[in-house]
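Your task:
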Amino acid sequence: MNTQDLPSSPLLAFERQRAAASNQPGPPWAVRAERLRRLQHLLLDNEASIARAIDADFGGRPAIEAVSRTGSNGTRSDVPRSAWSARTRHRL
């Protein structure tokens, strides 16, 4: 995707999301897993930028509070286990 593909307004973005969800309301697990993998890579690749944006929005938010590292096995390696939910997770 390039910048020409981005919607010009949030309303248009939501309309595109609604149309995509209507076209495939319950995608198979393989499709969802691939989308989650892409999201994970997007977040990890842009971690520093996201932390800076959160810091700017909230005025002095420490980076450790803004982002959480995820290990290759899907666990949050820098956050104590007691600090996050132990819900059942699908392996990506």
The two ends are 23 Å apart (CA to CA).
